[in-house]
């Protein structure tokens, strides 16, 4: 499966810049050439395979904006973490000394806390209700996020399938129908959320939702290191416009992981989190995504243990994870139903797939996976 939660592992993937010392060219001391098995003149770099380096020195640089300059100056050769900064991308694209590799395996989603309906403090959690979570799909303008907040280095994503992976292409007709069903419709989102809030016993007074006399709080946990800060503010603004009392929690990866993945969701410290994932390989079979992302079987952390999927959805997700189907047609039928039910469940709202840029010097050749890039590439040790 090779999925990495950006929130849980960002410390390990902090911006790594590599300095590469190349092995100098040598000439063969009176060695005869032309023997069976010879690949050319001994010591000729053009005829060798494998890495031609004596040493790789790693340094840490948290400011991606400095990376192009470091590479262009010749002091560094490679930045090991993907960059989604449009300014950096444009500079790399126009640079004579720096270039880049592209990867398509990263995604950004809105992780939802479904605990409740009442949290430990007695507060109401609207996102315990599946219909409220589902309505978030209509509320968020994914194209705006991709084009404006990510500067075009992203594409809208609605489903639990990476948009550049084979299963998405195989189910393109199903995917497109669901994308049309859940396209941006803020009026519908507001109507559905309002109806469900009233069913929960809340009332709207002077434009604000209140429950048992108190404002209904929504805490948005916002990552600060990348474009997710802008996405988090965008989502927080949407929730405020709907009449919720919004708390914005700006946190780094380490700080956020203590809350959303290590903490008890019933404690109610957060409701929405700007999450991210990396798929480190182009996976031809995403059937287990439903079990991984939507059921308690996915991960052992507390958040996953409060997931309570519809029994039919849970059974389908389990069957797909175990490859329990008779033939390809049955698999595709199960995948179709799982996609439909995952949107109704929506414990996570997929927002965009990212185009990550991995900067490096034009003087080196490095292996980059189409999904994992450089930092996630299994080819890295063999570069």
Structure keywords:
single chain; 383 residues; alpha+beta; Dipeptide-binding Protein, domain 3; 2 domains; seven-stranded mixed sheet; 14 helices; globular
Please, could you describe this protein's structure?
There is one protein chain. The chain is an alpha+beta fold. It has 2 domains: 3-105 and 356-382, no CATH class; 106-151 and 158-354, Dipeptide-binding Protein, domain 3 (Roll). It is 33% helix and 22% strand. It contains 14 helices and 13 strands. The protein has helices at 6-9, 67-73, 86-94, 130-139, 142-149, 166-170, 172-181, 186-199, 228-241, 253-260, 289-294, 302-305, 311-321, 328-345, and strands spanning 3-5, 16-22, 53-60, 78-79, 98-112, 154-156, 203-205, 208-211, 214-215, 217-223, 245-251, 272-279, 348-361. Strands 1, 5, 6, 10, 11, 12 and 13 form a 7-stranded mixed beta sheet that branches. A 3-stranded antiparallel beta sheet has the order 3-2-4, with no helix packed on it. A hairpin with a 2-residue loop joins strand 8 and strand 9. Helix 4 (130-139) packs antiparallel against helix 8. The longest helix is centred in the last third of the chain and has 18 residues, at 328-345. It is globular, with a radius of gyration of 24 Å. The model is unreliable at 7-14 and 20-41 (pLDDT under 50).
């Amino acid at each position: 499966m090779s999925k990495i939660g950006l929130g849980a592992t960002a410390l390990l993937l902090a911006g790594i810049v590599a300095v590469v010392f190349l092995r100098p060219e040598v000439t063969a001391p009176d060695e005869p050439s032309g023997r069976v098995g010879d690949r050319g003149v001994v010591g000729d770099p053009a005829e060798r395979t494998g890495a031609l380096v004596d040493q790789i020195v790693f340094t840490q640089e948290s400011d991606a904006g400095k990376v192009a300059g470091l590479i262009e100056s010749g002091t560094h050769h490679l930045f090991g973490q993907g960059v989604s900064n449009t300014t950096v991308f444009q500079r790399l694209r126009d640079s004579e000394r720096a270039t880049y590799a592209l990867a398509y395996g990263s995604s950004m989603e809105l992780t939802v806390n479904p605990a409740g309906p009442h949290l430990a403090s007695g507060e109401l959690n609207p996102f315990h209700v599946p219909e409220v979570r589902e309505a978030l799909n209509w509320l968020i303008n994914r194209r705006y996020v991709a084009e404006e907040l990510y500067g075009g280095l992203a594409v809208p994503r609605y489903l639990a399938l990476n948009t550049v992976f084979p299963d998405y292409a195989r189910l393109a007709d199903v995917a497109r129908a669901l994308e049309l069903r859940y396209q941006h419709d803020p009026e519908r989102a507001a109507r559905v959320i309002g109806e469900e809030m009233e069913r929960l016993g809340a009332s709207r007074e002077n434009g604000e939702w209140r429950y048992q006399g108190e404002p209904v709080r929504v805490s948005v946990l916002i990552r600060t290191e990348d474009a997710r800060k802008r996405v988090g503010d965008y989502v927080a603004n949407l929730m405020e416009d709907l009449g919720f009392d919004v708390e914005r929690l700006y946190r780094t990866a380490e700080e956020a992981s203590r809350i959303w993945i290590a903490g008890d969701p019933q404690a109610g410290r957060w409701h929405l989190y700007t999450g991210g994932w990396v798929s480190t390989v182009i996976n031809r079979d995403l059937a287990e995504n439903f079990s991984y992302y939507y059921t308690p079987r996915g991960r052992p952390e507390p958040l996953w243990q409060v997931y309570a999927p519809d029994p039919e959805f849970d059974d389908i997700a389990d069957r797909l994870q175990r490859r329990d189907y008779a033939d390809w047609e049955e698999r595709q039928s199960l995948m179709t139903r799982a996609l439909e039910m995952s949107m109704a469940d929506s414990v996570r709202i997929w927002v965009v797939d990212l185009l990550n840029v991995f900067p490096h010097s034009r003087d080196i050749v490095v292996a980059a996976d189409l999904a994992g890039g450089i930092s996630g590439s299994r080819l890295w040790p063999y570069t």
